[in-house]
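Students often ask what a holo structure prediction actually looks like on paper. The answer is less mysterious than it sounds. You provide the chain, you provide the ligand, and the output is a string of discrete structure tokens encoding the 3D arrangement of the protein together with phosphoenolpyruvate.
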Amino acid sequence: MVIVTKPDATPDQIDKIVKRVEGVGLKAQISTGEQRTVIGVIGDKTLLGDMPIGSMSGVEKTMPITAPYKLASRQFREEPTIIAVNGTKIGGRKLAVMAGPCAVESTEQIVTIAKHVKNAGATFIRGGAFKPRTGPYSFQGYGLEALKMLATAKQETGLGIVTEVMTPSEVDIVGDHTDIFQLGTRNMTNFYLLREVGRARKPVILKRGLASTIEEWLLAAEYILSEGNPDVILCERGIRTFETHTRNTLDLNAVPAVHQLSHLPIVVDPSHGTGIRSLVSDMTKASVASGADGLLLEVHHDPDHSMTGDGAQSLFPEQFEKLMQEIKPIAIAVGREI
Ligand code: PEP
Ligand code: MN
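The corresponding structure tokens follow.
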């Protein structure tokens, strides 16, 4: 259920409503919009009994949320969520562009790529320190050392950092170094990890599980939101289908669908969505046209020597630079900017 307050509700009235909800053992999640505050009531609402919440001072109406995910739903919050991070905003008019290698391989590598993508207009450097690999003998990332290399890249360029966290016990250490946590496709249903980043105070990019429905994905986001972290960014990165030509099938239906169902921003990763460099630029353009709030792209200056298998889907810096120019008119056509 959500409690919608009147536009002129006072902080004191809102406080009383929250206390009333919490007093019966339910959780109250506040969402402050431009016009009014909405209070999400989380838990078994029969605990409210016949309590006349609807007639409390400052309350305009109460509404049930019919979707299985509550805080993630548009019913909970009509306005889009805009996340401010490292001097930029994600979910507003301007597209967020996060680019960089699959994995952080050396200070020289990450700084070189960060400079390239920054000059081309990216606002975040991406790069894995902890890599979730399909096989246990593949390169697993340089861990803490790689987090320090990312910090150097940030110092040199001012770009925000996006890097993956894989286990609840590493949320603190990764959080000390990153601006945005990435939760990878293989961890979308790692519910302990979802709860742990939900207790952190940093934005989270939640990649869609490789065989997850949009509803399951929004329920995964709900785990993070329900722990008190409102800053979730969804990332469509392709799903498994019967098609084997591409690494995954990039489901761009998800972009407008998520915008209808949820207030959370959604970015698209055409690199993992295709797995093929020659397809990445076209699918990036399609992502922008579909209304994505941002892009997550793999870029490598020497992809043939990439330490993960993702060199084949990484753009060369020059391709990335060209692409950033080419998407400008598309962004404008759909009411956005780069
Ligand atoms: C990545 O971004 O490099 C990555 C491992 O992505 P995904 O979890 O989508 O496979
Ligand atoms: Mn990758």
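Residues 102, 272, 298, 308, 310 surround manganese (II) ion (ligand 2) (CB under 6 Å).
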